Amino acid sequence: xxxxxxxxxxxxxxxxxxxxxxxRAVASIPPAKRLRPARLAAYAGLAAAAxxxxxxxxxxxxxxxxxxxxxxxxxxxxxxxxxxxxxxxPVNGELDTGLPTFTWKRDRSSAYNLTVTDESGRTLWTGSxxxxxxxxxxxxxxxxxxxxxxxxxxxxxxxxxITSGVHAFRTPR
Length: 173
What we know:
By secondary structure, the chain is α+β, with helices and mostly antiparallel strands. 27% of the residues lie in helices and 28% in strands.
C-alpha cells in the first residue's frame, strides 16, 4: 500500500502539495500539543482518506506527466501560470550516469526539493537546495538504459508551493 501511495504522490501534484502542507501543519504544532486526541484523529482521517484514494486507483495505471498546480497557504488553487520550469535533463531526454545533474529555472521560491524515482514510482533520492541545480550523490547509481522520473517542488517565501510536474528521462546504454 505504501508503494501505491508513493507512486500516486509522484503522479499527482495536488496530493503531493496537500502532503507537504499537512507536514508543515504538523511541524507547526508545538511538541506538547502534537498528540492531542482531536488533532491526532483529524490527521488520521486525512491519512485514511489518502490511502482510500490510492486503493481505488487502477493498479495498472500508467505514469503520466502532471499539470502543475499552484496553491496558496490555505490550499486554494491558484492559476497555474507560475511553475518550476525544468532545464535539464529535457523531457524524455538522456541523463549521463557519471555526474547526473538536474537543473531548473529560478523562481521567486526560497527552497527547492528535487525527487528522483524509478519507473515504479519508488523514491530513489530526494535533495533540497536554495539553488537551481542538484547533482545526485556518488552513492546513488542509476542503472543504464533505464527510464526514471524527476520533479521539483518549490516553497515560496509567501508560503505558496509550486511544482514542475513529473518529467521522464533515460540513462544511456
